[in-house]
């Protein structure tokens, strides 16, 4: 029985010349279509994954400002604007305009979503990690203003806590609402 199986395996299936031509006629176009589909799928995936819109745009306000690399990476990963869409603007774009840096540890940043930018937020490097200080915790309310933060000064206690130097914040508000020079 084993000998019979071996002889059957050795036999070649003979295909006529006409049948071989038919197979070639069908298989070549079929092979080209499959290669085209595969190439198209790969190209589409590359385009889709490489053309995702920027989630955040980080820039230095002018040529005198050097944005620390760690701060740039930190700001690029922020996701506060993902679901926000301003009028006539792209959805989900976070804007971070760094306009003052001190000792590579403190940064004043104009920020916002899409086309809307607020006055500024403070970023502080602590334990080799950048963090944003919430404006509501950082700024004393500016009495008589429609936007309570606009024109406001930071709390002295916050400046002391984070040791924010006077070259980046020259004045602050004490607990009794007195404006004084920052002594850091």
Give a verbal description of the structure.
There is one protein chain. By secondary structure, the chain is of the alpha+beta class. The chain folds into 2 domains: 2-50; 56-181, no CATH class. It is 34% helix and 24% strand. The chain has 5 helices and 7 strands; from the N terminus they run H-H-E-H-E-E-E-E-H-H-E-E. It has helices at 2-10, 17-50, 69-76, 135-138, 156-162; strands at residues 56-60, 94-102, 106-113, 116-126, 129-133, 171-173, 179-181. It has a 5-stranded mixed beta sheet with strand order 1-2-3-4-5. A hairpin with a 3-residue loop joins strand 2 and strand 3 (106-113). The model has no long low-confidence stretch (mean pLDDT 82).
Question: If you compute it from the alpha carbons, what radius of gyration comes out, rounded to the nearest whole angstrom?
Answer: 32 Å
Fraction of residues in β-strands: 15-25%
Q: Helix fraction? A: 25-40%
User: What is the 3D form?
Assistant: rod-shaped
DSSP, total strands: 7
The structural class is alpha+beta
Mean pLDDT, as a whole number?
82
Ranges where pLDDT stays below 50 over 5 or more residues in a row are none
Number of helices: 5
Comma- or semicolon-separated keywords:
single chain; 184 residues; alpha+beta; 2 domains; five-stranded mixed beta sheet; two-stranded antiparallel sheet; 34% helix; 24% strand
Describe what is shown at a glance.
With 184 residues, the protein is an alpha+beta fold.
């Amino acid at each position: 029985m084993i000998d019979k199986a071996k002889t059957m395996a050795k036999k070649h299936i003979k295909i006529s010349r006409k049948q071989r031509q038919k197979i070639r006629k069908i298989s070549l176009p079929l092979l080209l279509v499959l290669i085209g589909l595969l190439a198209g799928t790969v190209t589409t995936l590359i385009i889709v994954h490489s053309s995702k819109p920027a989630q955040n745009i980080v820039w230095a306000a002018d040529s005198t400002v050097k944005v620390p690399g760690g701060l740039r990476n930190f700001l690029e990963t922020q996701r506060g604007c993902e679901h926000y869409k301003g009028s006539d603007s792209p959805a989900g774009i976070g804007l971070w305009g760094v306009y003052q840096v001190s000792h590579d540890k403190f940064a004043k940043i104009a920020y916002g979503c899409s086309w809307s930018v607020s006055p500024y937020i403070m970023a502080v490097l602590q334990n080799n990690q950048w963090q944003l200080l919430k404006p509501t915790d950082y700024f004393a309310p500016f009495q008589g203003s429609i936007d309570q933060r606009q024109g406001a000064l930071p709390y002295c206690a916050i400046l002391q806590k984070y040791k924010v130097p006077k070259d980046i914040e020259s004045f602050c508000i004490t607990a009794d609402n007195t404006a004084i020079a920052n002594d850091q």
